[in-house]
Design a protein that fits this description.
96 residues, 65% helix, mainly alpha
């Protein structure tokens, strides 16, 4: 299993002396989207394209897929099961 990593983007920002808030403004993205990226969560491809346009780079310059460690994979699977269970309960209650 793999997960997204934006470490390349954070390193690039350091190298060009640009902070995350300035990047968000340049790319027209919200603070919540920036927060998702900081947490290593997936964001809309449109956001990634806007970042690439703002920084004049390629998508592979700002992100990569990295292997998930075994312990982390177990946690992610557990969270996914809980989320699926919650969605099932919600659907049942919405229909009931």
């Amino acid at each position: 299993m793999k997960r997204v990593s934006y470490k390349k983007l954070w390193k690039m920002l350091i190298d060009i002396d640009l902070n995350k808030t300035a990047l968000a403004e340049m790319a027209g993205m919200s603070g919540s989207t920036l927060s998702k990226m900081v947490k290593g969560e997936c964001v809309n491809v449109d956001i990634l394209v806007r970042i690439c346009n703002a920084l004049e780079c390629d998508i592979f310059d700002i992100m990569e897929l990295v292997p998930v460690e075994e312990k982390e994979e177990k946690v992610l699977k557990s969270l996914e099961r809980a989320k699926n269970k919650q969605n099932t309960v919600k659907v049942v209650s919405d229909n009931g």
